[in-house]
Task: structure prediction
Amino acid sequence: MKYAAIILSFVMSAMTVCSCLRSQVQEYNIGVSQCSTDDWRVKMNNEMQLEAFFYPGLNLEIRSAEDDSRRQIQDIEYFISQGVDLLVVAPNEAEPVTPAVEKALEQGIPVVVVDRKIASDNMTAFIGADNYQIGKSIGHYVSRMLRQGGNVVELTGLMSSSPAQERHNGFVDVLKENKEINLMCSRDAQWQEKTAYGEMLEIISEMDSIDLVFAHNDMMAYGAFQAAKSMGMEQSISFVGIDALAGTSGGVNLVLEGVLDASFVYPTGGDKVIQTAMNILQGHDYKKNYILETAFVDRSNAELMRMQSSHLSEQEMKIRSVNGKLHTLSRSYNIQKILLWTVVSIMVVAIILIAALAVLLHQRNSLNKELNNSQDKLEKLSSELEAATQNNHLQNFMESEFDVDETKLSAKDREFIMNLKELINNNMSNSDLTVDWLSEELGFSRVQFYRIMKRLSGISPHEFVRNCRLRKAKYLLLSTDMTIAEICYETGFNTPSYFTRCFKEYYNKLPSDYVRMRE
Ligand code: FRU
Result:
């Protein structure tokens, strides 16, 4: 019991140490379903990953549907089946993706819709810019650009996606007020540079003079520019886009290079997405409808934008490198933690083993003691047994002379035999053990004694005494280390030669024959 209590207290203290070592960070899994993989999406994904560094325990998994709504539905189904804690969805198209988002909500998964909307207000939060306002701002810009009037072409994004519809509506609503500006055509170029290129070639072949092309993003504006260039018309047309990304192929650079006249910052807001998602998961306040700010970019501020963007990307690089170092440090911390765990576990096992060993040793000692006691008892018993056996032998070598059934003897005869045996046995070494002395000791006359002996044993008292001596001698020869001479005197013979002669007569063997039989 004492040992069990000690072991238990050791195990409990080791468990306390171990539980202190265990990390307390709550894990969150967020699934991000992106509609595309262009530069704008890559920037947004980077921002989300960067922001995620500030939330230990947050795991982000990003999937792209590559502009395919069916694939996006599968991605959302996958995240639902994975049991993510929260879903971020940038829908490719509003209508087709809505049921999948609602399914996630029904399963208790909060959904943050970003950039493009779904065909329902049923969502946990929305983060994005006001595309209708952006459309209007561009309408105003175009109105200023074409003060004297002009012909405008619109290349829209995928018209089944909300930004394309809203940008178009805002743009058209402003142009409606300006009768000088003629919106010659609006074509769906599906957010793609290539599609815009193809559409623009067709439009150029169909229309007489084009003053300005408004494309719903910079990629499409660039595609339209390339198409115009291929026809040698790029100098006579103004191109306006949206997104104003940094980087060599981004809108800011296109403005600086004179490819675009203007662009509009369409914020990616990846950091805000993660902040809102974590506020939802951690039960903090969050904006249900987070509208990101936008900014107009033309030649007057493009250089400033470029500088700011490159400064920002430097900062981003630093954060990434710090995070990398942090990662390495946390890895080595984890390794150390595992080592500590291992050492503590080994110590616990060692302590348990030592304690068990102590218990076993203690048990062995008590068993040894018991064994010693039993051995002592056994030895005592065996010496008692030996004595009894010896006694038995002694009795045997006398009893056998009385060749009668003892139970048929009278009480007097039995008493006589018992007394005689005791007398002879006690005085065996006495060579003067005469028949007179014996009969006197037993309370009989010599004649009476002689008769009784004859009746009971068939031999004379003298013969009986001698036979007893020889039987005991044989017993001693076989069972002791005594010499023949010692046995001779012990059994009351005066000389070894006489003893040897009597022995040979009685047993037809020499005493030395029996000595050789000893073990
Ligand atoms: C990127 C993009 C952007 C555009 C936005 C609208 O995938 O096409 O160019 O501004 O999506 O959702």
In short: The pocket of beta-D-fructofuranose is lined by residues 36, 38, 40-41, 115-116, 157, 163, 191, 217, 242-243, 266 (CB under 6 Å). The first strand starts at residue 28 and ends at 34. The mean pLDDT is 90.
